[in-house]
Write a structure and sequence with these properties.
Order of helices and strands: HHHH
Number of helices: 4
Number of domains: 1
Largest sheet: none
Length: 100
């Protein structure tokens, strides 16, 4: 399957939405680079972004929000954040030494 800009954007979006883990994103990127089936028209930009995603699990490189924004920009997209009310987090009382 040919990897397009939209393919990479969908993977990045899945990671940012916590639908896939960093390890899954990195694995996908590494396999994509090995397969080398990048859309010819955008091959240079795709190779740059996908190869960088393949290194995101290395501590020296990592993957920040700013990185994601930059990769999306390189692919002709932008990211927007939407803040919504969520479920309140239950506060657990610290148990005493007697377990109460």
């Amino acid at each position: 399957m040919t990897v397009t800009k939209q393919t990479v954007v969908d993977k990045l979006a899945g990671y940012l939405r916590h639908e896939i883990s960093l390890a899954q994103l990195v694995d996908w990127a590494e396999n994509t680079m090995l397969d080398g089936d990048l859309a010819e028209r955008d091959a240079a930009a795709l190779a740059t972004v996908v190869s960088r995603l393949g290194l995101a699990d290395v501590r020296a490189f990592g993957l920040t929000w700013e990185d994601c924004e930059e990769y999306l920009r390189q692919l002709g997209y932008s990211a927007h954040v939407e803040i919504v009310a969520g479920q309140p987090v239950a506060v657990r009382e610290k148990p005493t030494k007697y377990g109460k």
